[in-house]
Amino acid sequence: MNTFGNFPTTRLRRLRHNNNIRQLASNTTIAPAKLILPLFIKQGNNIKQAISSMPGHYQWSIDRIAEELNEITSLGIQHVMLFGIPAIKDAVGSSALAANGVIQSAIPIIKQHASHLTIFVDVCFCEYTDHGHCGPISPHLQQDVDNDHTLELLGQQAVSLAKAGADVMTPSGAIDGMVQVIRRELDKNGFQHIPILSHAVKYASAFYGPFRDAAEGAPQFGDRRTYQMDFSRNAHDAIRECALDIQEGADMIMVKPAHTYLDVISNVKQQFKGIPLGAYQTSGEFAMLKAAAQNGWLNEKNAVQETLLAIFRAGADFIVTYYAKEVAEWLKA
């Protein structure tokens, strides 16, 4: 017996007849509550510096961040992820640990102006080191990050950010053992309630270029393939990375980038169904869509919604995206 029905009795177009019915029958939807907007905070005064490779995005100084927060609030956005650009960089990224560091200083101001926002903070050193890598360089391995020394610093950075009022830690450096150390140091200092969103599956991708412009953190030598995942390897590495981070105490996990790794998102979700899964629609993914739209090569709204829905459909529970404001505007309209 055919359980799927036959034409003309069964007509699938009946559930596509108008927008209300299409929405009702949809099992994948986009909502501002499921989107996280990255923000770039730069040390200094009176800064609203346009990021040329990311139209509509800016580096903000703390004294002007209220302008962006007012717009975010009006659009119903509930989550932001902060990246800092310090005034001084050094070999170990010491400004990332300072109580008066750029992000540590920004968090209370953001809380004051937009108390409803969940503040995710990047726990990494690439924005703070003068060489652009995600930790101090090993004295024994040429042009490579000293993994275990970096772990010590990540623990200190996480505690400093927690004391400033951060809501969620998001370690992104792909340093082995980072979740375990951050969890241990947070718990030891009374921050057992703060969750960790690990960038567990982070590929050494070509799609980070505009972000590195925005965060002023491009590597000055070598590359990050010694610690970020190789996209030419088998997908089983993603499962191992997630399993390790969950075992170490990650409360949520992330796949990054998103568009070119829909298969990985799906595989991770199937393997770890009980763990909230995020996907990062990276700066390069944003820039491609934005450039094509500005040149009239595609309909921006339709293309963005299609790509975000694909990421959700693959298994993501939430998405970090530079399109959060535009999407919120479209949904509001």
What's the assembly state of these chains? single chain
Distance between the termini: 46 Å
What is the fold-level CATH name, i.e. the topology of the domain at 31-257? TIM Barrel
User: Any idea what the CATH architecture of the domain at 31-257 is?
Assistant: Alpha-Beta Barrel
How many strand elements? 10
DSSP strand content: 15-25%
| Large-scale geometry | globular
Summarize the helix and strand pattern as letters.
HEEEHEHEHEHEHHEHEHHEH
The structural class is: alpha/beta
Q: Percentage of helical residues?
A: 25-40%
Number of helices: 11
Query: CATH superfamily name of the domain at 31-257?
Result: Aldolase class I
Q: What's the alpha carbon Rg, rounded to whole Å?
A: 21 Å
CATH class of the domain at 31-257: Alpha Beta
Question: Which spans of ≥5 residues are poorly predicted at pLDDT below 50?
Answer: none
**Main beta sheet:** 10 strands, mixed
Mean pLDDT rating: 92
